[in-house]
Amino acid sequence: MSYSAWFQCIEGCEERYPLTEVIYRCRRCSGLLDVVHDIEELRKRSPSAWMMLFDERYKRSSWPYGSSVWGKKEWVCPTVANENVVSMYEGGTNLFWAERFGREIGVEDLWVKQCGNSHTGSFKDLGMTVLVSMVKQMIAEGKPIRAVACASTGDTSAALAAYCAAAGIQAVVFLPKDKVSHAQLIQPIANGALVLSLDTDFDGCMEIVQKVCAEEDIYLANSINSLRIEGQKTISIEIVQQFDWEIPDVIVIPGGNLGNVTAVGKGFLLMKELGLINALPRIVCAQAQRANPLYLSYLNGFREYHPVRAQPTLASAIQIGNPVSINKAIRILQTFHGIVEQASEDELANAAAQADRAGLFNCPHTGVALAVLLKLLERKEIRRTDRVVVISTANGLKFPEFKIDYHEGRLRDIHPRYANLPVELSPDLDAVKRVLDQKVG
Ligand SMILES: *Cc1c(COP(=O)(O)O)cnc(C)c1O
Ligand SMILES: [Zn+2]
């Protein structure tokens, strides 16, 4: 079989470029590029044969197909040679059955896709494995690439640094000073990236890195680079696979730069095109109220869109006012009967904590998605019988400051309804028993 894929302009001019070319926007019209696959070639295998192939490979040890991204290699990036794949066994993350939390909030069939149970602790690994593999292939073919760079709200830089370190490629990360968690900052430092801490916000970092990468020898790893979308789209394929090839009714995704909502939509569209599914779920994009340009555009039916200046939010990974994938995301939402809703700081922090009480350990961005779920259930835009999947984008362990400050009541504008503080007492049996009687009942 000769599967192939290429970059193609999304703005109708349909200009094509090879995946090994250093290019992020169309040379003719400067539109965004998308990775497009040779669908006719993919159609030569039947839907059931694809399902069987993906199931056979899932979490097994044949390189690189045990990774759930590379287990779908023909659909993701068929043109990279297996020896150039840089993989840390991505995907295959738990689809957490949030039965108890679901019952509490009035939805019968609730699942949380734990994309943060991953090598660097966020879904960013899914896309970065594809991008860095392609860079390794370009270097092997003699392209003079000195380094790979990104601007980041924390998780992209962690993923880039880890994959580059594994491949022996230099990473350069641009971070907004004091706007990422300690855990996120230490990851690229530990992995040997050049860490540039800029006194600006994410959008400011993004502007600079795009200029730095205008020279061809530093490769841009932000999600404007659609290779990452290809890896991330396996989230939806994997969810359907985990439901034995059935689709859920609703997917809720926190959105910042809007690459992930685009990717999840793209995965469903490809499955439908190739006959593995025959309907599409609804996609809900959840934004932080303090960084909500997509939500504002949704309110006017996407007729108008204006970037905003993102305000500080606990959901720091989505503190983005000028999302690069805005056009792609709007198209996806229009195709998927999409909803955009926002969450305040109080709502996101309490939703995260409430779900933690039922066994999760949520990052603030997942808190945004959960808060939006609560609102849509209340408004009956999501029905109690719907099968709902919430995309958890990062591991809560990357955000200890958020958790501790919440429980200690130190977050501004937030009433911690689920605060749970340690009881300090002397090592005395009677004192302990008194507390047990009081608190445990
Ligand atoms: C990157 C990121 C997001 C936002 O994804 P986009 O593709 O930028 O919309 C959400 N949550 C976490 C934890 C992230 O790292
Ligand atoms: Zn074009």
Written description of the protein model:
- With 441 residues, the chain is α/β, with parallel strands linked by helices.
- It has a domain at 95-120 and 231-407: 3-Layer(aba) Sandwich (Rossmann fold), CATH 3.40.50.1100.
- It has 17 helices and 13 strands.
- The protein has helices at 39-43, 47-57, 73-76, 99-105, 124-140, 155-167, 182-190, 202-212, 227-232, 234-242, 259-273, 293-299, 326-335, 345-356, 364-378, 400-407, 429-439; strands at 5-9, 16-17, 33-37, 95-97, 109-114, 147-151, 171-176, 194-198, 218-220, 250-254, 282-288, 339-343, 387-392.
- Strands 4-5-13-10-11-12 form a six-stranded mixed sheet, with helices on both faces. The chain has a four-stranded parallel sheet with strand order 8-7-6-9, sandwiched between helices. Strands 2-1-3 form a three-stranded antiparallel sheet.
- Helix 5 packs parallel to helix 6.
- The longest helix is centred in the N-terminal third of the chain and has 17 residues, at 124-140.
- The radius of gyration is 22 Å and the shape is globular.
- The mean pLDDT is 96.
- The structure holds pyridoxal-5'-phosphate (PLP) and zinc ion.
- Pyridoxal-5'-phosphate is lined by residues 122, 124, 155, 223, 254-260, 317-318, 363, 365, 393-394.
